[in-house]
């Protein structure tokens, strides 16, 4: 069945003169979080040269020999390198990508690629991560205000100076798609389970699509109509995650998104690089919305619950595929 598309405006929010415009930015940000769950931020203060450096650093990592990349294997602490290992409940198939996940704290003890393999990687990555956290903190102040919390409420819960910080930078490399045979979505439809995601794309490497429509955080199913999210120079694409949707008592929407498989001649059949920063609260942060719609949990408990929901949905999908195979 052909994909159904719908044109939807992606709100664009400028962070210029933040302190003077904080009320205006808060209103725009909360409206976008309620209506779409996706928005672009501009005038965020991160120089394009720094973004380009991080993309070059990411590409250098993925071009390393396989033994070097595998020297920092993925671990259940959500750090390290993985290759075609993420299977989505929406597709029952592995994403056509490799990725390397980085954190600030204790989980990275033995997961940094060595300077022997890639000189300067750790310092470059941490500098960029701190830049992203500074932008995230501005957004968190606005989101806290919108929900009636103190300004520093979410910032304190995501303090990356603490060893039990869980915020994650994910370097992503999607593989070139063959133009013959069966093709798969590079990343199947999913929602992020964290607080807030900041995403960088590269010009000419399209594929990101969104599908708004979830009303409560416990829903898994997505809608039918998708909207393409085009690359825009200087912008960071942001989306609400399940944790913030729960923390806002379902006021802010965590939106389904995917990186679609190329189908048309104008699609990007070549490689795709992207960089995602997932704001995730410290393990002992207490999470409950102002209306207390959901029971209070810690950051660590929410992550465990989200993983449980993911694997339950995945098992359901795999069982459906097995039953269909038997019928055939």
UniProtKB/TrEMBL annotation:
Q: Which UniProt keywords apply?
A: Iron, Metal-binding, Oxidoreductase
BP terms from Gene Ontology = small molecule biosynthetic process
Q: Name one GO molecular function term.
A: oxidoreductase activity
This protein's superkingdom?
Eukaryota
Report the Pfam families cross-referenced here.
2OG-FeII_Oxy, DIOX_N
Provide the Fe2OG dioxygenase domain boundaries: 164-281
The record ties this protein, via InterPro entries, to: DIOX_N, IPNS-like_FE2OG_OXY, IPNS-like_sf, Iron_ascorbate_oxido_reductase, Oxoglu/Fe-dep_dioxygenase_dom
Q: Which Gene3D superfamilies match?
A: B-lactam Antibiotic, Isopenicillin N Synthase, Chain
Q: Which family does it belong to?
A: Belongs to the iron/ascorbate-dependent oxidoreductase family.
**Designated name of the protein:** Fe2OG dioxygenase domain-containing protein
Organism the protein comes from: Pestalotiopsis fici (strain W106-1 / CGMCC3.15140)
The lineage, from the top, is: Eukaryota, Fungi, Dikarya, Ascomycota, Pezizomycotina
């Amino acid at each position: 069945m052909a994909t159904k598309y719908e044109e939807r405006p992606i709100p664009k929010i400028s962070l210029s003169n933040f302190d003077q415009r904080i009320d205006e930015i808060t209103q725009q940000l909360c409206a976008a979080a309620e209506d779409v769950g996706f928005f672009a931020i501009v005038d965020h203060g991160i120089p394009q040269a720094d973004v380009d450096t991080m993309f070059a650093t990411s590409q250098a990592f993925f071009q390393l020999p396989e033994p070097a990349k595998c020297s920092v294997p993925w671990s259940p602490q959500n750090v390290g390198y993985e290759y075609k290992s993420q299977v989505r409940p929406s597709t029952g198939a592995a994403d056509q990508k490799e990725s390397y996940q980085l954190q600030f704290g204790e989980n990275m003890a033995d997961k940094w690629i060595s300077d022997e393999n890639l000189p300067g990687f750790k310092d470059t990555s941490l500098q960029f991560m701190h830049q992203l956290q500074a932008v995230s903190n501005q957004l968190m102040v606005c989101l806290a205000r919108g929900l009636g919390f103190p300004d520093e409420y979410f910032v304190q819960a995501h303090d990356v100076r603490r060893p039990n910080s869980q915020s994650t930078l994910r370097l992503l490399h999607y593989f070139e798609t063959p133009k013959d045979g069966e093709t798969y979505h590079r990343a199947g439809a999913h929602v992020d389970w964290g607080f807030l995601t900041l995403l960088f794309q590269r010009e000419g490497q399209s594929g990101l699509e969104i599908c708004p429509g979830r009303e409560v955080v416990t829903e898994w199913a997505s809608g039918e109509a998708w909207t393409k999210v085009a690359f825009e120079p200087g912008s960071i694409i942001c989306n609400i995650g399940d944790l913030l949707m729960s923390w806002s008592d379902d006021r802010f929407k965590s939106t389904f998104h995917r990186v679609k498989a190329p189908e048309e001649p104008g699609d990007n059949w070549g490689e795709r690089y992207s960089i995602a920063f997932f704001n995730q609260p410290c393990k002992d942060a207490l999470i409950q919305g102002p209306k207390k719609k959901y029971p209070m949990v810690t950051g660590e408990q929410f992550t465990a619950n989200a993983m449980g929901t993911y694997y339950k949905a995945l098992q359901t999908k795999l069982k459906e595929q097995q039953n269909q195979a038997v019928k055939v």
